[in-house]
DNA sequence: CCTACCGATCGGTAGG
DNA sequence: CCTACCGATCGGTAGG
């Protein structure tokens, strides 16, 4: 019996209070970005003053890094599980895309949205975040390499295009006639090219 | 003989000084975002103090809106010209994509990059920018509607995916083995599906 | 967890 | 175009 993280990707260890603060912070970062979220904003939602948060966290930067890494850990596991249920390379890719969009488009999504534009985050921290994200994206390298693509498609470009496509859906998606799974299906339909 | 804007999309009327300041501001906004660029930063590059800029502009917000609108005006014209040289629907789309990527990936690009994440910009101004961008995107509605796509592809989703794909290339593209035109060709190759 | 505060930075202005 | 400044806001801390 392996330990399973909850959907939001925050470990459930530690004091409930800290955990609650992390959830609030994640939601605000996702909605308003790193610079657009002040410690006082987070405090307000938690019912305390901004300065009081420093009993639970070291700094705003460390808080963001922790949230970002937890989100990617959880996403990585969920995607890996979904991929493992399929054998066909295109089915495996579709499973990965559907899972990723489920995570990013969940209405209460605490996790990934907007953790992609790192220009707001101070330089030194940014490199840390980019390194973690690159590790995550390696998961897709294997999936793309297994595809039988037409030879005119460059696999490296193809992978970058697919990932940026997936990471950017939250910018324009509004819950309406199509579900996250529908969008994932459309993306895979577009990116699907069999080498015949 | 119609008046032609320069590639950077800033009208060449008015005092050269103001024009120079606009160019500097555009470059900084593109590199560091709206909130990441202070008026003092712009002043420093221009060789004056931040406060002195207000002789040439009304406010930071008005400055950004002016730059954004000029960039879209110029892009709109260049894309329209490129599209008009082709008759085949897929060739027209490819011409549009190539032109747009040329603009966004130009090494000194003052114009469009990063003028896409509007979360940094204050609410009231944001609506203005979004409205202008929507008008620009209508250009692509016509191009997509002219395609003979397989019926399982939703044209509205398809258009959103294509546009977000084009707008996001600057986030990961590094000048290397592939040119902007190469990337455009890869994107069109992926998005190309003939209804057979 | 609050009070009370720090040094820094922001957009913007008056007055010359 | 500068000097000198405004009110606001920021991340963070000391001391209780």
From TrEMBL, chains A, B:
<dbReference type="GO" id="GO:0000976">
    <property type="term" value="F:transcription cis-regulatory region binding"/>
</dbReference>
<dbReference type="GO" id="GO:0003700">
    <property type="term" value="F:DNA-binding transcription factor activity"/>
</dbReference>
<keyword id="KW-0804">Transcription</keyword>
<dbReference type="Pfam" id="PF00440">
    <property type="entry name" value="TetR_N"/>
</dbReference>
<dbReference type="InterPro" id="IPR001647">
    <property type="entry name" value="HTH_TetR"/>
</dbReference>
<dbReference type="InterPro" id="IPR041490">
    <property type="entry name" value="KstR2_TetR_C"/>
</dbReference>
<dbReference type="InterPro" id="IPR050109">
    <property type="entry name" value="HTH-type_TetR-like_transc_reg"/>
</dbReference>
<dbReference type="InterPro" id="IPR009057">
    <property type="entry name" value="Homeodomain-like_sf"/>
</dbReference>
<dbReference type="Pfam" id="PF17932">
    <property type="entry name" value="TetR_C_24"/>
</dbReference>
<feature type="domain" description="HTH tetR-type">
    <location>
        <begin position="15"/>
        <end position="75"/>
    </location>
</feature>
<keyword id="KW-0238">DNA-binding</keyword>
<keyword id="KW-0805">Transcription regulation</keyword>
<dbReference type="InterPro" id="IPR036271">
    <property type="entry name" value="Tet_transcr_reg_TetR-rel_C_sf"/>
</dbReference>
<feature type="DNA-binding region" description="H-T-H motif">
    <location>
        <begin position="38"/>
        <end position="57"/>
    </location>
</feature>
<protein>
    <submittedName>
        <fullName>TetR/AcrR family transcriptional regulator</fullName>
    </submittedName>
</protein>
């Amino acid at each position: 019996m392996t330990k399973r993280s909850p959907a939001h990707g925050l470990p459930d260890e530690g004091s409930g209070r800290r955990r609650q603060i992390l959830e609030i912070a994640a939601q605000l970062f996702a909605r308003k970005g790193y610079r657009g979220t002040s410690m006082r904003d987070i405090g307000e939602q938690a019912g305390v003053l901004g300065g009081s948060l420093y009993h639970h966290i070291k700094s705003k930067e460390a808080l963001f890094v922790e949230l970002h890494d937890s989100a990617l850990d959880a996403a990585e596991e969920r995607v890996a599980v979904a991929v493992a249920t399929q054998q066909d390379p295109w089915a495996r890719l579709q499973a990965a895309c559907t899972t990723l969009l489920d995570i990013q488009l969940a209405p209460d999504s605490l996790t990934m949205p907007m953790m992609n534009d790192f220009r707001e985050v101070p330089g030194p921290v940014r490199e840390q975040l980019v390194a973690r994200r690159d590790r995550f994206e390696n998961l897709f390298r294997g999936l793309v390499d297994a595809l039988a693509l037409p030879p005119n498609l460059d696999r490296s470009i193809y992978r970058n295009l697919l990932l940026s496509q997936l990471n950017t859906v939250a910018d324009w998606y509004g819950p309406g006639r199509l579900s996250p799974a529908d969008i994932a299906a459309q993306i895979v339909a577009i990116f699907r090219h069999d080498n015949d």
